[in-house]
């Protein structure tokens, strides 16, 4: 790291402004030297009158110790004149050394150095690495951005956040956020950021600003993919007309994804994503023969060909183990061909599902989107909303609308909480959702409780409260944008669980899955091995890992980082 002196050395020859700022400080230092010299000479004069003799350097030493208020006391005057002189030197030193000198140093030396350093950092934040291409540009810091940055970095995709404010940009850089400084509505910003060579530009500000961002990027390039977030559905058409490649109404999609995890109606198996030629699906074991059995005893693969790859248990995703027992509230996640999943549904459909209406608490955007999605599946819906002003927007969507506070047991009883197979908590207040999770679990222990969460730090609390499935706006946004960046089908497994494609590291080549111990060491659940476009999901412990393979694994970002640390 450069010192202040080295910075000044580089600035002085060519920076007239810096020389002008330093001139008063240099003059003051010269004055200080003159004062110290004068006091040193007067010291010898008075000491000579008292009959004492000292070296010339002793006078300088005495002047400095007195002026700096250190006053070691090793050299003192005996006369009143000498003591009066010492007092004068002390008072002068307090003003010259302790007050004026720091002020001038900060103003003439330290502040210009900081300013020059900041200008250097700003210049570095306004440039990209030479030849950078295939990167992702994020136009704002929002709830999605931190998770998306982490997810893309794990996939070795370069990513930068555009920030117009210099102080904020430098603070972001200090905490490790890759940042590019510039105005998000300036075409020069995107030109300097290499937007034309980018893999994707994410417009994640407000709807009106996003429209401006899309149009600005399109001035530079017609081909770069631009993903725009839409807060309201009416903005979708506007953003598409502006030139957005993908428009994501995440609030609306959050409601639809919550509705997709509802176990009700005639089907018992919910398909949650497409994985190459295979499907990922889940089903509740309540009131089926699988309840209370270990996974090995279900003989699911023998009967249908589908494989259990994990189990949701009260909001926690557990890796599949042969001895893992399925409780009444377990929801296994299975992988199989469309025919195998269909056969599994036929096996389960003979066990009568609960025909009572699904209960949705909250009639906001998420609640309305969830209700509409359920109605398209011909699943009856009851909704509880406490704001009577929303009634005109809501009334036509659910089968019945109950106005009142969901914390009121009478309202919940009237809405049918005791009989409902599934409860969706869609309010934007995490504290309320946690409270209602505990309350609803007590009123109906067998119902499946699905809830949204606004702040990531509340995920564990809402899981401990008894939620069976949790999904946040940020998590959905991260998974959706990541799937677009990597050109893969969107699979939303749940909060804190992602699908990772991991190139096989050299340290695992020619080892078996059992010898690798990936699950034990990292927590990742390997569900498939891909080699030359061929995907194998039936993985025995002695499955040998060959060079050039790609592991397909389920787990969290933390587990993916542990894998990198353990095997790379």
Provide the fold topology.
Layout: H1 4-11, H2 16-49, H3 56-67, H4 80-125, E1 136-138, H5 145-154, E2 159-163, H6 166-174, E3 179-181, H7 187-192, E4 200-203, H8 207-220, E5 226-229, H9 235-242, E6 246-248, H10 250-260, E7 270-275, E8 278-282, H11 295-298, H12 300-304, E9 307-313, E10 316-319, E11 331-336, H13 338-349, E12 358-361, H14 365-376, E13 381-385, H15 391-394, E14 400-403, H16 409-415, E15 422-425, H17 430-443, E16 448-453, H18 459-464, E17 469-472, H19 473-486, E18 498-503, H20 513-516, H21 518-522, E19 525-531, E20 534-536, E21 550-555, H22 557-567
Parallel strand pairs: 1-2, 1-4, 2-3, 4-5, 5-6, 12-13, 12-15, 13-14, 15-16, 16-17
Antiparallel strand pairs: 7-8, 8-11, 9-10, 9-11, 18-21, 19-20, 19-21
Helix pairs in contact: 2-3, 2-4, 3-4, 5-19, 8-9, 10-14
Domain RCK C-terminal: 266-350, 485-568
Keywords: Membrane, Transmembrane, Transmembrane helix
Main location: membrane
């Amino acid at each position: 790291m450069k010192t202040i002196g080295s910075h000044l050395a580089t600035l002085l020859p060519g920076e007239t402004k810096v020389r002008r700022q330093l001139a008063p400080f240099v003059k003051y230092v010269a004055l200080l030297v003159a004062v110290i010299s004068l006091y040193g000479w007067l010291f010898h004069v008075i000491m000579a009158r008292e009959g004492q003799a000292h070296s010339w350097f002793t006078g300088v030493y005495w002047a400095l110790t007195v002026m700096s208020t250190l006053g070691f006391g090793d050299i003192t005057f005996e006369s009143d004149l000498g003591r009066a002189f010492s007092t004068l030197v002390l008072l002068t030193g307090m003003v010259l050394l302790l007050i004026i000198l720091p002020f001038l140093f900060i103003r003439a030396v330290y502040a210009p150095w900081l300013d020059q350093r900041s200008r250097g950092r700003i210049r570095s934040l306004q440039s990209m690495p030479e030849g950078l291409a295939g990167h992702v540009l994020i136009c704002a810091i929002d709830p999605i951005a931190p998770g998306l940055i982490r997810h893309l970095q794990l996939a070795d995709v370069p990513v930068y956040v555009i920030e117009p404010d210099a102080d904020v940009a430098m603070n972001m850089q200090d905490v490790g956020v890759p940042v590019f400084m510039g105005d998000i509505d300036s075409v020069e910003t995107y030109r300097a950021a290499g937007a034309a060579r980018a893999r994707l530009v994410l417009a994640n500000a407000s709807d009106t600003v996003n429209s401006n961002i899309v149009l600005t990027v399109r001035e530079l390039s017609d081909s770069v993919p631009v993903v725009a977030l839409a807060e309201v559905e009416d903005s979708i058409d506007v953003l598409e007309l502006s030139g957005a490649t993908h428009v994501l109404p995440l609030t609306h999609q959050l409601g639809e994804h919550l509705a997709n995890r509802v176990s009700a109606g005639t089907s018992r198996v919910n398909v949650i994503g497409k994985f190459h030629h295979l499907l990922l699906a889940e089903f509740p074991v309540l009131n089926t023969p699988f309840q209370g059995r270990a996974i090995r005893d279900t003989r699911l693969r023998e009967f249908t060909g589908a494989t259990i790859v994990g189990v949701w248990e009260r909001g926690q995703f557990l890796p599949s183990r042969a001895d893992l027992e399925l409780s009444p509230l377990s929801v296994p996640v299975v992988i199989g061909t469309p025919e195998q999943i269909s056969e599994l549904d036929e096996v389960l459909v003979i066990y009568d599902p609960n025909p009572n209406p699904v209960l949705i608490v909250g009639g906001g955007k998420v609640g309305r989107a969830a209700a509409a999605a359920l109605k398209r599946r011909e699943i009856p819906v009851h909704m509880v909303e406490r704001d009577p002003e929303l009634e005109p927007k809501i009334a036509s969507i659910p089968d019945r609308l109950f106005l009142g506070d969901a914390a009121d047991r009478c309202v919940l009883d009237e809405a049918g909480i005791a009989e409902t197979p599934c409860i969706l908590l869609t309010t934007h207040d995490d504290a309320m959702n946690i409270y209602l999770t505990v309350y609803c679990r007590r009123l109906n222990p067998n119902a499946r409780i699905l809830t949204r969460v606004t702040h990531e730090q509340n995920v564990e609390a809402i899981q401990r409260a008894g939620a069976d499935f949790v999904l946040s706006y940020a998590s959905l946004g991260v998974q959706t944008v990541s799937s677009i960046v990597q050109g893969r089908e969107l699979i939303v497994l749940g909060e804190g669980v992602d699908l990772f494609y991991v190139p096989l590291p050299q340290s695992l080549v020619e080892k078996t899955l059992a010898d690798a111990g990936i699950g034990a060491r990292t927590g990742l659940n390997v569900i498939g091995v891909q080699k030359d476009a061929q995907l194998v999901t039936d993985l025995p412990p002695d499955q040998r890992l060959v060079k050039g393979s790609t592991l397909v694994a389920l787990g969290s970002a933390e587990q993916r980082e542990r894998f990198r640390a353990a095997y790379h």
